[in-house]
Automatic annotation (TrEMBL):
Any one Pfam family match given in the protein's UniProt record, by short name: MoaC
Reactions catalysed: (8S)-3',8-cyclo-7,8-dihydroguanosine 5'-triphosphate = cyclic pyranopterin phosphate + diphosphate
Pathway per the UniProt entry: Cofactor biosynthesis; molybdopterin biosynthesis
Positions with a binding annotation for substrate: M75, C76, H77, M115, E116
InterPro entries: MoaC, MoaC_bact/euk, MoaC_sf, MoCo_biosynth_MoaA/MoaC, Mopterin_CF_biosynth-C_dom
Family designation: Belongs to the MoaC family.
Protein name: Cyclic pyranopterin monophosphate synthase
Thylakoid in keyword set: no
Limits of the Molybdopterin cofactor biosynthesis C (MoaC) domain: 15-152
Main function: Catalyzes the conversion of (8S)-3',8-cyclo-7,8-dihydroguanosine 5'-triphosphate to cyclic pyranopterin monophosphate (cPMP).
Length: 161
């Protein structure tokens, strides 16, 4: 089996050939967040953002982004995703209104879906920003990171809490 590397024999970039890898069930979960003002929080939760239902649009954007990750991240493989879902949860502490975005991506294929999960969560946060920037441009997109991954040659991963 060929070595899994993004460099060819000449040291130039290439897409890794995964054709000899075993097709298995793979799943990844990622998280991103965005901190908004009280005013933005109220507009979102009361459905008063002029551009529409922010969380519904962000969810569709995240799903679309997961499906197109291979088009925007160099050397990612186009994957037949079997499931993409996103969840949203508000965490309010003092004057901080943080929207936690979790993405869940699945496939049965011969390479993993970590990049698709990370892309979905990131694009959700960016979509919230885009839809609410007329209200407040001071929003802060937080860290984006992998929570869990299962399947494949390298086994499972779970971020410590």
């Amino acid at each position: 089996m060929a070595e899994f590397s993004h460099l060819n024999a000449q040291g130039h970039a290439r897409m890794v050939d995964v054709s000899e890898k075993e097709e298995t069930f793979r799943r990844a979960e990622a998280r991103s967040s965005i901190i908004v003002s009280q005013k933005v929080y109220e507009k979102i939760t009361q459905g008063e953002v002029k551009k529409g239902d922010v969380l519904s649009v962000a969810q569709v954007a995240g799903i679309m982004a997961a499906k197109k990750t291979w088009e925007i991240i160099p050397m990612c493989h186009p994957l037949p995703l079997t499931g993409v879902d996103l969840s949203f949860q508000w965490e309010i502490e003092n004057e901080d209104y943080e929207l936690i975005i979790d993405s869940f991506v699945k496939t049965k294929w011969n390479t993993g879906v970590e990049m698709e999960a990370l892309t979905a969560a990131s694009v959700c946060a960016l979509t919230v920003y885009d839809m609410c920037k007329a209200i407040d441009r001071g929003m802060t997109i937080g860290q984006t990171y992998l929570l869990k991954k299962s399947g494949g040659k390298n086994g499972d991963f779970s971020r410590e809490s």
